[in-house]
Amino acid sequence: MHGTVDYILTDLRRRSLPDAVEAVLERVRYFGLCMIPEYYSHQFCEQAVGIIRAHEANRDVDIWRDAQGSDTRIMGIEAFQSELDIRKDVLVGRVIASLYGQPPGSGFITSGHLLFRPGNLGSGGGWHRDSVHSDQFKALVYLTDVNSDNGPFQYYLNTSSENSLAELEEHYDIPVTENRISCDPTSVLPVDRLVEVCGPAGSLIISNTRGIHRGKPIQSNERFSLTSYHWKGGIPAHIDKLVNKSCLA
Ligand SMILES: O=C(O)CCC(=O)C(=O)O
Ligand SMILES: [Fe+2]
C-alpha cells in the first residue's frame, strides 16, 4: 500500500467481514482516508435522495443553508427516517468503533445537498480540519455520481497524525493550531498528496477529518450525500441545538 490510489478498496466483496474491517482500518490509519466504490446500492441511493428532497420541502424540518444557498443540510435526518442511519451498517459501525476505540457514543446523520451557485465555497466552506486537537472520523456516502465538477470531497493524504501536523507546520508553515487553513494548500503542499474523491452513487468514504480537506466548490449539477458524525462524549451543545430530534406529527 504505497500509491495514492491505494486508499480505494476495490475487492471488498471477496473479503470476510473481519478482513474487510481490517482493510478499511489500515487505509484510514495510513492515509487518513478509505473509499469503497458502490458500497450502497443504487436503489438505496435513489430512495435516500427522494427522502431528502421531501424533507427539504417540509417546513417543519430544521434546515441549515450556507450563505450562497449552495449547501443545504438536514442535521439528524435519521430521526425522521431510520433507514438513512448509515451508522447501523455493520462495516461502518465496526470501523468507527475501532477507530474511536469504543462503540460510537453520541452522534447523528446529516444529509448534504450541493447545488451550483456563483461564488460557492464548497461543502465545509473551504480548506479546513474538523478538529486539530483530536481525531475525528466520519463516514460519507455519495448518493449521486460525483465527478470533478459536482463537488467531490478533496483530501490531503497523510495529514491527520500528530506527526504530520508537526511536519506541516515545520515544512509548510501551516500552524498546528489552525482549523481553517489560511494559506492556499494547493500552492503550498505537494500536489501528489491531494486526492479528489470521485465515484459513482453508493460510494462510501471513511476519513479522519483531522486531516486537511474540503468539499470542492461545485461547478455544475448537484451532489447528494449522507454523513455520519460521532463524538466520544456528548454532542457539543452549539451543534446539538441544530440537530432535528423527533418524528414529525
Ligand atoms: O461534504 C464534504 O465533501 C465535506 C464537508 C466537510 O468537510 C464538513 O462539513 O466539515
Ligand atoms: Fe470538514
Automatic annotation (TrEMBL):
Q: Known Gene3D superfamilies for this protein?
A: q2cbj1_9rhob like domain (2.60.120.620)
> Which Pfam families does the record match to this protein?
PhyH (PF05721)
Q: Name the chain's protein.
A: Fe2OG dioxygenase domain-containing protein
